[in-house]
Amino acid sequence: MTEEKDFSQYAHPDALVSTDWVAQHQDDPSVVLLESNEDVLLYETGHIPGAQKIDWHTDLNDPVTRDFLGPEQFAAFASAKGITPETTVVFYGDKSNWWAAYALWVFTLFGHEDLRLMDGGRQKWAAEGRELVTEVQAPAAAEYPAPAQRDDSTFRAFREDVLAHFGKPMIDVRSPLEYSGERTHMEGYEQEGALRGGHIPSAASVPWAKAANEDGTFRSRAELEAIYTEQAGLGAAEEVIAYCRIGERSSHTWFVLQHLLGYDNVRNYDGSWTEWGNAVRLPIATGDQPGAVPGA
Amino acid sequence: MSQTPNSTLPAQLTEVIEEFAELEDRQKLELLLEFSRELPELPERYLNSYDQMEEVVECQSPLFLTLEYDDAAGTAAIFFAAPPEAPTTRGFAAILHEGLSGLRFEEILAVPEDLSERLGLSKAITPLRLRGMTAMLGRIKRNIRAHQAGSAPGQPG
């Protein structure tokens, strides 16, 4: 892929930047680049010059309660990365931006205005032979005032919200075997399993990586519409909930639905299968069909 | 049920464990990165022939391993291959290489399953990633047991 993709095809073209754009803005003080990888040591082996590291495991989560940072911890973290509320924050990472989308979604909860993903992520940058360095630049001094709140209602769903959502579309982004219930964990993630296998009844199965091309970039809007709007039956839905195992893969799908396809109200259920599949008396469907809406 | 003290483990493994134990979490990651850089290259005979090696599917990134046995000495040499884009996995492999390769069969079989905990990495690295290291150790032991039983599966030669 040498041709530059036209981002204006997407609902929110500003949510994406190209590798070229990033290269041109390397010295732009209003832009902060954050690298967020599944492999927490990858940044150290080489990153885009000037990029700061974000470790999804230790930087974004509360160390005790299963939850994200609070507003004050977020403000301290953002300040330490040289970010102010006016900063354009560009995320990129490995594995088709999977973890970058997760970090972007968490920032969204705190109401940060200008958040973007670098299309194609680390893979595309490296494939284009662009520079990767091991030198870590000191972030600019910055003061991020603590946001009034972490908004847990607009883009985040809890299990009560999922129960209240029945009858409206849901997307399960896990692998087909996790969806059907043959497997209670993702391959290689045994410890993050659940007691019961299957999916939330009525949720359509669209594994998250379907949204990405081989080179890590997002598929075209027409292709995404065929996958989500048509095949998964989202149609013109006003509200959609996406979930996976712990909410990271579904952040990627959340980004696609919210920003690339422009669905109005997309929420990520980060409790996901590690909550649902372990909870008492919640309805579960098994097999490769979505199953009926409970109580319908 | 008392834990096997580190002092009864093979000396080359104890050394690695102690190297990690002395460090703060952030420095532990740096050391793991150093290990990942020092993972020895595969010997010529395995290059471009990963199919002769065993894939550790429990790892989140591709990892291949194979063992070579010296039956006269009763020792096993362990070889690993993992791509540079997977430094954490490479780091785990390098720890096992440094700590176990060349030891006697029974010494390797006696290595406790909680090796990854002894390195004290559980706060810096997600537990699910550490499982990859436990899986590597499990496969190494299984290979040795199979070899001892005279039917090493999937081994070259």
Automatic annotation (TrEMBL), chain A:
Entry keywords, A to Z: Pyruvate, Repeat, Transferase
Protein name, UniProt field: Sulfurtransferase
InterPro entries, sorted: Rhodanese-like_dom, Rhodanese-like_dom_sf, Thiosulfate_sulfurtransferase, Thiosulphate_STrfase_CS
SUPFAM superfamilies linked to this entry: Rhodanese/Cell cycle control phosphatase
Organism from which the protein derives: Nesterenkonia aurantiaca
Reaction(s) catalysed by this chain's protein: thiosulfate + hydrogen cyanide = thiocyanate + sulfite + 2 H(+)
Domain Rhodanese: 27-134, 171-285
UniProt-listed SMART domains: RHOD
Lineage: Bacteria, Bacillati, Actinomycetota, Actinomycetes, Micrococcales
From TrEMBL, chain B:
Domain Fe-S metabolism associated: from-to ranges: 17-142
Signal peptide as annotated in the record: none
InterPro entries xref list: Fe-S_metab-assoc_dom
Family in the record: Belongs to the SufE family.
Protein name, as recorded: Cysteine desulfuration protein SufE
Lineage, top ranks: Bacteria, Bacillati, Actinomycetota, Actinomycetes, Micrococcales
